[in-house]
Prior knowledge:
Layout: E1 15-19, E2 22-27, E3 30-31, H1 48-54, H2 67-72, H3 76-91, E4 98-105, E5 111-116, H4 120-126, E6 130-131, E7 142-146, E8 151-159, E9 165-173, H5 179-191, H6 198-206
Antiparallel strand pairs: 1-2, 2-3, 4-5, 5-9, 6-7, 7-8, 8-9
Amino acid sequence: MGGARAARPQRKPKHSVVVCGRAARVKLGTIRRMRDADAVLTWNTLPSATRELLAGKLAGLWNAPSDAAAFDSWPLDKKQALLLLVDRLYAKGLWNLVRRVTNVYGEGGVGLEFEAWPMVESTLSRRRDFTRRFANHNDTHGGFYEKNRSTAILHFLFQEGEPRRWYVHFDLYSPVHSPGSALRHFRHEMLGKIKPDWRTIAKQLDT
């Protein structure tokens, strides 16, 4: 005859992030992305976990009075670009480095400009999955490339100032992953001046 059953340990909740129009489950840093170019994306349709990640980071952008007002005022490409970057940065444990978003774009490149917390450079410097090699541009003062992917890689850049201006975008091909990816980077992005849009990046992140 028995006593009371032992309580089962509680499962950690999964975070839900909307990417490209539909809900994606987040578990152990892996985010499944689904593309839906016809989806209607508004602040209220985002899962609560997504809104929590964005809380306080969008208000004031282009004079928007709130995070919701900022997000809802954007065209689809900016919304999708932001969500792709939130996904990837969150999966890499780097979204917490973003203090406030100051610009975002999803056509002619996929990236954002942001105000960073002071530990961003020291954090990226310590990461084995990032490198300074080839990461700087002529008009910037430093940067970091993601090392462990050949496509759709994160590329951080900064310009000195008060405050320092930080940027992060996706490069379609990596100049540091392998000789093959470096050659594709040179052909497409250096010679061809081809800048991917959010659909191209989303497709590469799904592979």
